[in-house]
Amino acid sequence: MQEVAEVLRQERNSLEQLLYRLTALRALLIGRDEQFLSWAAAEVETARNQVREIDLLRAAQVQLLGVYGPNRTIPTLRQLASLAREPWAGILRDHHDALTNMIAEIEVVRYGSAERARQGIRRVADAQTVSRRRRGPSWSAARHHVSSPPEIRPAPAPPKLSTWTPMPFDDDLAPDDVDLSLLTTESAFQDALTASGKLQIPSLIAFLR
Questions:
Q1: N or C: which end of the chain has fewer CB within 10 A?
Q2: Closest by Cα among 48, 57, 196, 172 to 120
Q3: How far is residue 63's CA from residue 4's CA, in Å, rounded to a whole number?
Q4: Within 13 Å and on the Cβ side, how many CA atoms surround 19?
């Protein structure tokens, strides 16, 4: 039981790390501080991977006990606590309560982060629409509407000089720093949304039932 209790302690610590990273990500989203969103999202993914790795280790340790639940299934943490002697029974029950509460809190925080990220994506889309309306047709579209210089054909009279002149380059019609900034911000919100996805650790959920 000592090995199982130790890996459960590690699992609690990894979930605390994940909760901390998600809370930091949510704080950036609430404060509309997009500068470090991608970094925060990457840290959430790192913490999530650590949770999965330790969960595999916990499952292996439980199997090594050689204890089974009904129909020779993998025992739940409650079943292990009921079979263990003190002080291990109390320690396992404490781990069960702490892990259950932590997963519930993680779900609340990550759901809130996902909603904030979606709001940010919608704000960027609105800003892009406003930017396009202010600039009018894009430089590329405007360029394609420029007619070619008229062909000069021989004529008895001296040909007229062409009135065609190259279109001046207009910064307002070309992609600008605002567009690039909006694309960068949208990418950061997408990273945050991905990082706020559902916590996929079904084996741990089943273990805590």
A1: C
A2: 196
A3: 10
A4: 16
Between CA 55 and CA 208 the distance in angstroms is 12
Token pair recorded at residue 182: 């909006």
Q: Is the pTM above the cut of 0.85?
A: no
| pLDDT (tens digit per residue) in 43-96 | 999 999 999 999 999 999 988 888 776 777 788 999 999 888 889 999 999 999
Sign of torsion over alpha carbons 20, 26, 30, 35: positive
**Is residue 185 within 8 Å of residue 123, measured between CB atoms?**
no
Q: Catalogue all structural domains in the chain, each as residue range(s) with its CATH number.
A: 2-137+178-207 (1.20.58.300)
Does a cis peptide bond (omega within 30 degrees of 0) precede residue 87?
yes
CA distance 105 to 146: 59
Q: Cα dist. 202→55, 56, 95, 100 in Å?
A: 10, 11, 17, 13
150's torsion region: left (phi>0), alpha (psi -120 to 50) or beta? beta
